[in-house]
Amino acid sequence: MDSTTPNAEATANTLASIRAQIERLQPAPAFVIASGDLANHGNVDAYRRLRHLMEGFPIPVIWALGNHDNRVNYWAGMHDQEDQGLVDHATIIQGVHIITLDTSRYGQIGGTLDDTQIAFLDSALSAHPDLPKIVVMHHPILVEGVDHNEWHGLDHAASARLAQILPNRGVQGVFSGHIHLDRFSTWHGVPIIVSMGLQNSSDPLYVGDGVRSLQGASMSICTLRESGLTVTTVPQPTTRQVEREITAAQLAAYVAALNAK
């Protein structure tokens, strides 16, 4: 919730509206997933504002970090703590085993997982074999034939390693964000659920060589059944007006500048 972002107040208002919608749901959700990019520029004040906006929220929130986040400022602003490192954790809520991975890396648009994180995930998947599991990480697994650039999500190496350890482990879904789209895929038998988020929407109909952002936001309501998972998207009111267009050359220059730091 960075106040320096041009549409910061609109995003804050969207969050307030979605919070109210969630609080009206009956039965109440077991938990809420916030899959990263909690702040646009990662300022500590942005996390403090988000914390303030979520005060009194009666439902547990699973927080993940994305490429726009700053890990040190997240720990300070959200938890009043010194830097605790990668935000990897696992918890059980109402019989669901939730495994969260921090795919963000400073100065990178795309995400990755290191050996320690892969080992953490593998161990967590082996724990509580009687419980359904979901995995939360900001960067979506790269889906062949759909994602052609590593900045779209998790890098190829990490995606390939997940292809070896996620299938047939009781994973009911992998929940991500990053690409500003509501998108659902089946990948090696594992459901991959990507949420648009609250700030804007990528235009899937754009035929240029870059990306076009539209006004747009959504949340999803998920139901985990014995037979599987249902995901219902809830689009928020929007004009779908164009916010900006970024060419492939501009993206490449931005990535090069990040890599040079």
Automatic annotation (TrEMBL):
Residues 18-180 form the Calcineurin-like phosphoesterase domain. GO terms for molecular function: hydrolase activity; metal ion binding. Keywords: Hydrolase, Iron, Metal-binding. It comes from the Bacteria. Pfam families: Metallophos. Belongs to the cyclic nucleotide phosphodiesterase class-III family. This is Calcineurin-like phosphoesterase domain-containing protein. It comes from Ketogulonicigenium robustum. The lineage of its organism: Bacteria, Pseudomonadati, Pseudomonadota, Alphaproteobacteria, Rhodobacterales.
